[in-house]
Amino acid sequence: MNDHTVPNDLCPVGFIGLGIMGAPMVRNLLHAGVPVRVWARRLEQAEKLVADGATLAASFAELVGTVKVLFLNVSDTPDVESLMLDDGGILSHARAGLIVVDHSTIDPLRTRVIAERAREAGVAFVDAPVSGGERGAIDATLTLMLGGDEADIERVRPLLALIGSTLTRVGDSGAGQIAKACNQLIIGETLVAIGEAYGLAQAAGVDPARVREALLGGFAGSKVLEMHGKRLLEDNFVPGFMAHLHAKDMGIVADTAAHLGINLTGVDRVRAALSRALEHGHAYDDSTILARYCVPDR
Amino acid sequence: MNDHTVPNDLCPVGFIGLGIMGAPMVRNLLHAGVPVRVWARRLEQAEKLVADGATLAASFAELVGTVKVLFLNVSDTPDVESLMLDDGGILSHARAGLIVVDHSTIDPLRTRVIAERAREAGVAFVDAPVSGGERGAIDATLTLMLGGDEADIERVRPLLALIGSTLTRVGDSGAGQIAKACNQLIIGETLVAIGEAYGLAQAAGVDPARVREALLGGFAGSKVLEMHGKRLLEDNFVPGFMAHLHAKDMGIVADTAAHLGINLTGVDRVRAALSRALEHGHAYDDSTILARYCVPDR
Prior knowledge:
Chain A is α/β, with parallel strands linked by helices. In chain A, 51% of the residues lie in helices and 12% in strands. In chain A, strands 3-2-1-4-5-6 form a six-stranded parallel β-sheet, sandwiched between helices. In chain A, strands 7-8-9 form a three-stranded mixed β-sheet. Chain A is elongated. Chain A starts with 12 loop residues before the first strand and ends in a 19-residue tail after the last helix.
């Protein structure tokens, strides 16, 4: 059953959080021959994956107690905190030596607390937020930003390599989440910049598509100008990555900056643009839409 | 003397503005066999190029009156306005059919006025601001953003191809300058974003170099993160493109937005960061330095 590249002492693995990102990650593990045990509050989410070869655990406790590596891919910080730290949570049921790999995008500083609590319980915790969207999850081309002990990350690397194509250990616990926060901030600010540039061009009667073309190969060129800049021109806001999730992530960036006592004015501008986009009904559109709302309403 | 690819009816050409960017552009024209006539208030600037094969004009009037295409590469809007429109300026001395190609970065809306006045005098005016810096000028790999009549641009294209490697007609007069304004705005805002991201990482005790590495291949990746992001980590502010020139360009962006009645808050943030950098003595450092000043002094 198991592929040569994944050591047997990492198997079976468990996976909690079987949504748009989690489900294709599970399938990529299964395709490589890794035995995956799943469990979900909404049983139908888990049953789809059973049809693909996953094993349904009898309960949450049984899942946690029988796996060597446990992947999480849930929505927000409180979800991970609850799963890990609650009475009856992961740390209550885990075997010593369990490695938890958290693909959720959550608060970096609270990640450090979770990792410390896990360590005290004999469980390793690796923060492993991803970028690359649903397409990257399906194609196993995700970028993984990793935080945690180097030895733990090296142990799970054969599994992570089945999920993503760029794996970078950024530093100790929380460092992966810091990198993800930087990622969301830079993408947001670049979108605002492109929104402003397109707005300037349009106000001057110049075609933004021609401006984009002139700029793409030069110093102003970026993945955002290439991909999102094209979406903007085509009014294509099919997600991709939804605006309400980007708003959630920018909240994490803002909280982190506040806790660290630094003032990042760009964060406020991206959040303001996302708020306006959400107020105008674009929560489930691609977050590229924020570029349309970067100029304050007048 | 003349290369096959440059039609004889474009020769000789003239060049005014023989500085860091202009001089290597002239050399690239000369190397291709194009006869170039030069003139400069500071005679020694012109004489260097005579040693490379340029012809020194007897006077400004003689230069303007004897060339088919006249390149300008000067500092700011008033310089181009004065050269073109003053009594005794280019329009006073030009032969009908002259094409002026302006590589300066100047105000897009005032460019339209200059081009209109030129047209009335039987002179074509093409705005052709560049990006790519001194290195691009030497290697003839500049990006040229072109505004003006399509026929005029097509006529001079064989000459422009000797100076740059990416030539894009963005639209009518001023459209090249609008693209350049967008270029400087996007680069400035991306630098601010990277400055903030690095600041967030450092405040959290995470190495910005590792964050950059994790982000480079993903959606947050850009030429600015690749090139300027590396400069920041290495404290390398050898220009490149000087901060005071970026400040001048951002003034153009701000004036243009104000004249068009649009409110671009990103412009203010980039200008504020550049102002702080200039106040701290960095006028002649590379404009990457602005990323160090994007967080307000407290």
